[in-house]
Design goal:
The protein is mainly β and about 150 residues long. The chain has one domain (about 10-150): Sandwich (Immunoglobulin-like). The protein has three helices and nine strands. Strands 1, 2, 3, 4, 7, 8 and 9 form a seven-stranded antiparallel sheet that branches. A two-stranded antiparallel sheet has the order 5-6. Strand 7 (about 110-120) and strand 8 form a beta hairpin. The chain is globular, with a radius of gyration of 15 Å.
Length: about 150
């Protein structure tokens, strides 16, 4: 995938789910970069697909302020063959504020909820989450299974 906000989950990728207001609602940010550094960022509500709710995708202007570095050279790889890669990303809090329409300015002790998920892999045995999802058929967009993320 080489387009902003495209289906990067079909490539070797990782997803980061972050709920900056866990006590207020079921909204969360979904940051989904592939191994080449292309990404999607969405502000969405749990169950958005089942209920036919739109989600807000990051604009090209805001996306240009997100920094992504990866060990995979070039804009594409051959299929899902990328293995053993790393990715580092920096998303400015003011970018998240503009995307979400909320003031995002965590301080020491601020607690969010979130999860990480490896996607776009050849087999289920290669899939992984940081925080376990206790469902027979895991739905990775499950805020009720997000772990605690505390800022220092």
């Amino acid at each position: 995938m080489t387009e902003l906000n495209g289906p990067t989950f079909e490539d070797s990728s990782v997803e980061f789910f972050a709920d900056p207001t866990p006590d207020e609602d079921s909204m969360y940010v979904n940051f989904e970069p592939n191994c080449c550094g292309q990404f999607k960022i969405a502000w969405q509500e749990a169950g958005w697909q089942e209920r036919g709710i739109d989600r807000d995708l990051v604009s090209p202007e805001l996306a240009s302020r997100v920094s992504v570095r990866t060990s995979v050279p070039g804009p594409t790889t051959a299929g899902n063959s990328a293995d053993g890669w790393w990715l580092a990303a920096a998303i400015p809090f003011d970018v998240l504020s503009r995307l979400t329409g909320r003031e995002i300015a965590p301080t020491a002790g601020t607690e969010w909820r979130g999860n990480f998920y490896r996607s776009g892999v050849a087999s289920d045995s290669q899939k992984a989450t940081w925080n376990p999802i206790e469902k027979p058929n895991p739905d990775y967009h499950s805020p009720e299974y997000f772990g605690r993320l505390r800022f220092e």
